[in-house]
Structure formats: C-alpha cells, structure tokens
Write a structure and sequence with these properties.
262 residues, alpha/beta, 7-stranded mixed beta sheet, 4-stranded antiparallel beta sheet, 11 strands, polyamine biosynthesis, SAM-dependent_MTases_sf
Length: 262
C-alpha cells in the first residue's frame, strides 16, 4: 500500500465501477501497472514485462511463510489486490490449491481484465464475499495451511478488519501448523491495535522491520515453531534459487526481531 509513484503516472482511462463498491482504476508508470480504488493509493502493482512476479517488496514479504511451510495444500488470500500473491501461488506452487476472497467485484473484474488473473479451475477459486464471513464460517475452519491477509479500502487508513474476533476466525481457519501473514499499514495506532489483537489469539507473532511507505508485514503461527537460523538461511537460499524471492532478507528481519524483542 503506497501513494501513487509519480504525479506523472499515466491514467489509462479504464474504469470498473459496478455500483455499491469503490471503482477500480489503473495507472501506468515506467512499465508498472498499478491498481487504485478511485484514489491515489496504490492497492497493488504489476510489472508489465514480468506479470507473474511479485513487484512490491512488502507483497514479496507476505510469502515469508515459505521459510516454514514448503508444500502447503491450501493457500487463502483475503483481499485480492492486484492478484500478485494469488497468481504467484497458483503458478509457482503447482500442488497447492489457491483461494482468494474479495468483496469488491470491480477488483475481481479488473484483475481478470488487466492483471492476468486466470479463470477459476480445479486449483484456483476467486470468491466475491466478505473476508469476515469466510473466516467465521465453520466449514472453513482447519482447512487452510497459509492465510495471507491484505485488507484495505479506498482510504487505506488501516486494515478493514482488525478485531480479536476477526483474528480468532483466521486462527480457526488454519490447520494445525498453519501460518498467517498480514500487512499492517496506516496510522501508527493501527500497528499496536492489530499486533495486540493477533497476540491475544496466536501462539507466536513476529513482525519484520518496516519497509517502504510504512508497511509492516507480520507472521503469526498457530503453533510456535522452533527457529533454527542455519536451517532458515538454507531454506532462504532454496527460495531465492527456485522462486527468485529475497528470502535471506526475511531471515535477517526475523533475527533482528528476536534480538530486539526476546
């Protein structure tokens, strides 16, 4: 989540504005297509020359669960954004089922039209629904190995869902060794509120140092892992080689967190 990259970003004039939801629009600047919800805030981005890669650093960090889970059966994305995480998981994890939950039909439509989101199939399902309804539904409890949460409205002042009830639902959806990553952005009061709510529910909650434009990515564990940094660095090397993600920086961030908080 960040302001528009440049005041000279070119608006394409494309607009998906089904009534009752914020309109979805795009701008393009220096080869990067950005998603907006009727404001200057960037809700996601895609480099046109690498449409299946994850462009934004904080969105890449949402994949740090790969350090702990190598072969998840089911990954769920709450908040589709520009579909970067959904596409990446679908294309690069061929044995994984991927579900995306998005309330705004305009976002789903523009992702399918301009961000290369594939049609649903046996492994991919994009559902138009409220994320709170998804996590509170008993049918979803215990069925998700990885939950990726990035829920913002057009004003981007803080996560749309940030209550203990919501995070309890996220916890309930996870399998026994499930992991949640979430992006916390907005007013500084949001950080403490969200971290406290997560800590009330999850066995372990860790966050990496702030990246560009005040995004903080948090990783929460249903069951606290044992952290062996030699193993994590080895795993980071595999992630870099196989998926081209900067996983060593994630391990460095985890190490810094432990030094400062334990």
């Amino acid at each position: 989540m960040k302001p528009t990259a440049s005041s000279t970003s070119a608006s394409t004039g494309l607009r998906f504005d089904q009534p009752g939801h914020p309109p979805a629009t795009i701008t393009e600047f220096q080869g990067v297509r950005s998603l907006h919800l009727g404001t200057s805030w960037v809700q996601g981005a895609m480099r046109l020359s690498r449409p299946d890669m994850i462009e934004l650093e904080y969105v890449q960090m949402m994949m740090m669960w790969l350090l702990f889970l190598q072969r998840p059966r089911h990954v769920v994305q709450l908040g589709l954004g520009s579909a970067a995480l959904t596409k990446f998981c679908y294309r690069r994890l061929p044995d994984t089922r991927v579900t995306a939950i998005e309330l705004n039909p305009n976002v789903i439509a523009i992702c399918r039209s301009r961000f290369g989101l594939p049609d649903d199939d046996a492994r991919l399902q994009v559902r138009e629904m409220n994320a709170l309804d998804f996590v509170l539904a008993p049918a979803n409890h215990g069925t998700v190995d990885v939950l990726q949460v990035d829920l913002y409205d057009e004003e981007a002042r803080g996560p749309v869902l940030d209550t203990p009830e919501f995070y309890q639902g996220c916890y309930d959806c996870l399998s026994e060794d499930g992991v949640m990553t979430t992006n916390v952005f907005g007013d500084f009061s949001n950080y403490d509120k969200n971290l406290l709510a997560m800590e009330q529910v999850f066995d372990a909650v860790v966050w990496l140092p702030e990246v560009h434009d005040a995004n903080i990515v948090v990783i929460a564990f249903k069951r606290a892992p044992s952290l062996d940094f030699s193993v994590l660095y080895e795993r980071a090397g595999v992630i870099k080689k196989e998926l081209n993600l900067p996983a060593k920086a994630w391990v460095n961030g985890l190490k810094t967190w432990m030094r400062d908080h334990l």
